[in-house]
Structure formats: C-alpha cells, structure tokens
Amino acid sequence: MLKEDGGIMALLGMVKSGNSDVMAQVARGIANFSKCETRGIIEGHRRGRSFLIGDGVLTWLISNSTNGPPSTRRHIELALCHLAQNEDNAQDFISSRALKEFIRVSNESSSEVIRNLAKKTLKLSPTFQAKLQKCER
C-alpha cells in the first residue's frame, strides 16, 4: 500500500525541504519499514527485492549516510543493514555505491551494534562474499 499509493515517493519528496527534523523522521521511517520488510522475508511471508530499492530510497540512503545529525545517520545505517539482509537486494547494492557504503558502515559506524550487524550481514551473504573475494584478487 505504501508503494501503490505513492507514499515512498512522498517521503523522498518531503526530505527535499532540507529540514533536519524531517530528514531524521523519514530516515527513521525507512529504517522501521525495512526492518519489518526484512523480517517478513526471513519468516517467509514475502519474497523478492525490497519495495524501497526500486523507488530511489537506496540512492537517497547512500547520498545521506554521512550527512546530518548522528541520529539520522544511525537510522540510515540501520536501514542499509536491514536492506542488505535481503539477498534479493544484493545485486542492487553491488551495482550502486551501496556495497561500498555498507562496508564503510561495518567499519566506521558510531554504533557498535550497527557495525556488528553490518559485519554479520556481509559474512552471511553469498553474493557479498563472492564480490568481496573477487575484489581481493
């Protein structure tokens, strides 16, 4: 319903205001949505790539992952973690700058919990592991 009714595009439109409080709340909403969506995939209720990937959210997350107040960055980092847990999103992460940014999060996030979740996700993803091993050669 969020996608069908244009809610994702509306959220991305709201952040264009540049208001840091709006950006923080949008980032929080995206993190919460991606967490619920990933939980549904893990539990087998849903399949396929994230609704957020196709609507430009991944691009927005990458662009803003190092901007704004710490709370906004943490929400963005969490959203990246949850989106990366869905193996069907892995190719989108690789074809964009998201994988590079996700690796940065795994090493540099101010939150130990987020760093650990990112590292765990990188280790558990066969697609990410294959890409990382290919880059090491």
> What's the Cα radius of gyration?
14 Å
The average pLDDT is 89
Largest sheet: none
Strand and helix order: HHHHHHHHH
Oligomer: single chain
Residue runs with pLDDT of under 50 for 5 or more positions: none
Instruction: Tell me the number of structural domains.
Output: 1
What this model shows, in words?
The protein has nine helices and no strands. With 137 residues, the protein is mostly helical. The chain has one domain (7-136). Helix 2 runs parallel beside helix 5 (70-84). 38% of the residues are buried.
Summarize the structure.
The chain has helices spanning 7-14, 20-42, 51-54, 57-64, 70-84, 90-95, 98-108, 112-124, 126-136.
List keywords for this structure.
137 residues, mainly alpha, 9 helices, globular
What's the layout of helices and strands?
Elements: H1 7-14, H2 20-42, H3 51-54, H4 57-64, H5 70-84, H6 90-95, H7 98-108, H8 112-124, H9 126-136
